[in-house]
Write a structure and sequence with these properties.
The chain has about 500 residues and is α/β, with parallel strands linked by helices. The chain is built from 17 helices and 19 strands.
């Protein structure tokens, strides 16, 4: 049986490996110069940057892929636990270290509000309940049948899945800064904490269960380890080739077209593409249900990502820093709802040289700074606004946590939603496909078994269970449950 994987992000890689372990002949096609999807690697003047995801949680999901073939991930890659997981910097220059150790967390919380210590335990208990159901029990289960979704409704109602993450956190935490820090996780998967379903509150316990890790050599080294596994197992990989069309006859996909003029046929097809792109721009005839979902779907926010090196080091800056501006709810409203580019911002800073000095020349640092911004529905001219935003970010960091930055920046460049649209074929230049709203989760999200088609399957951020590395890896486990056996497909 021949299976064709369209897209080489983590979801596509995981799908290719899981199907190969079942004996399928597997071909993977991806438009990027190297595997990994958004997890590309940039190198400029001796500085290395992970282009996309940098936070590794639930590392067992990667280990499973090697175990399918009797191998160990740790023979090919070193994962290092981080401490702290994140350092939050607030507008008044106070800091909050969020990381391992319950007693240390209690002490950190007590510095802001002693009464919130007991509240945090309540939050963690609620997060664990969400985790047990949403991740352990349902995270790798198919949601393509309405009857399965219907059976979950009583539990969903009991857990109040209609609440937002912000509402859930505010129920337990009183201090405004702690509310911001502990409600921020939805932004890591493309959601507004004030709108994202509280199911994503399970991230608190997921982080507590397995910690936050860094792959030595970066996320790119993790991709390289997986690429080596694909090669050893005989999966054919074609990089630098784009899918330009998906062709169906009746309820089956027959072939896909490539940008070099070829047509590839297979028994089954797995899409790791943005579902909005797949159904809206590649398919010559789209099933009704998928067409309706595409028309009604809300996409996640855009990202402005600034990369640079410095010819000095900033040892006081943690590996992961969340730099929060004065506004929180109002800024998110500008980004997600009004879709306007504000003068202010909040930032995520990645300083990999805090853990792996090999990301920069000796005595230097490497940085990746991410600012959530409106997606392309905001009609922002990034050729004009990009340089302005870069200058504002460098100025703000220089005045706060990176003194003297302007004089020490080296080899800087950036990506905007325009680049996400062009490089990754992300509809509206969104950073994380469709937004993690309640009305776009589980059965309401794009199905892992394509609506109306027998031999097309979906993995990745836009399908169940959602964005983030644990989500996209779990989507491949869902697919494995759906895929027909050789006997059924014959």
């Amino acid at each position: 049986m021949h299976s064709l994987i369209m897209g080489g992000g983590f979801g596509g890689i995981a799908a290719a490996l899981r199907l190969r372990a079942r004996g399928h002949d597997v071909t993977l096609v991806d438009r990027c110069p190297r595997l990994g999807g958004r997890a590309q690697v940039f190198e400029r003047q001796g500085y290395r940057h992970d282009a996309g995801p940098t936070v590794i949680t639930a590392p067992f999901l990667f280990a499973e892929l090697f175990e399918l073939f009797g191998e160990s991930l740790h023979d090919h890659l070193a994962l290092r636990p981080l401490d702290p997981w994140y350092r939050f910097r607030f507008p008044d220059d106070t800091f909050f270290d969020y990381g391992p150790g319950i007693e240390r967390m209690e002490a950190e919380i007590a510095r802001f509000n002693p009464e919130d210590v007991s509240g945090y335990h309540g939050l963690l208990a609620e997060s664990r309940e969400l985790f047990d159901i949403g991740f352990r029990e349902l995270g790798d289960q198919p949601f393509h049948r309405a009857s399965f979704m219907a059976r979950q409704i009583p539990r969903l109602l009991r857990l109040r899945f209609d609440r937002s993450v912000w509402t859930m956190v505010s129920r337990h935490i009183q201090h405004p800064y702690l509310r911001r820090a502990l409600s921020l996780q939805p932004l890591l998967v493309g959601g507004n904490p004030f709108d994202t379903t509280c199911i994503y509150g399970l991230i608190h316990y997921l982080e507590r269960e397995w910690g936050v890790h860094f792959a030595m050599g970066g996320t790119g080294a993790l991709v390289d380890a997986l690429a080596g596994l694909l090669e050893r197992q005989g999966v054919r990989v074609e990089n630098g080739r784009s899918i330009t069309g998906v062709h169906r006859t009746g309820n089956r996909v027959e072939s896909v077209s490539l940008d070099d003029g070829r047509q590839l046929r297979a028994d089954n097809f797995v899409s790791n593409l943005d579902p909005m792109h797949l159904y809206g721009e590649l398919m010559d005839s789209v099933p009704t249900t998928a067409r309706i979902k595409r028309r009604l779907s809300s996409t996640s926010m855009g990202l402005f990502v600034l990369y640079f090196g410095t010819d000095r080091q900033y040892p006081e800056v943690a590996h992961h820093t969340i730099w929060l501006g004065e506004r929180y709810r109002e800024l998110l409203h500008d980004i997600f709802d009004r879709k306007v580019l504000s003068e202010d911002f909040s930032l995520y800073l990645h300083r990999p040289t805090a853990t792996d000095p090999g990301f920069a020349p000796s005595g230097h640092d490497s940085f990746y700074v991410l600012a959530p911004v409106p997606n392309l529905l905001g009609d922002i001219d990034w050729s004009v606004e990009g340089p302005k935003l870069k200058a504002r970010i460098i100025d703000a960091l220089e005045r706060t946590i990176l003194p003297g930055l302007g004089a020490h920046v080296r080899a800087d460049f950036y990506m905007t939603p325009d680049d996400f649209r062009h490089n990754y074929q992300s509809v509206h230049g969104s950073g994380f496909s469709i937004a993690p709203l309640f009305r776009q989760s589980a059965w309401f999200r794009f199905h892992n078994r394509a609506e109306g088609l027998r031999n097309l399957y979906l993995v990745g951020a836009g399908t169940h269970p959602g964005a983030g590395m644990p989500g996209v890896l779990s989507s491949a486990k869902v697919l494995e449950r759906l895929f027909p056996s050789d006997a059924e497909a014959a």
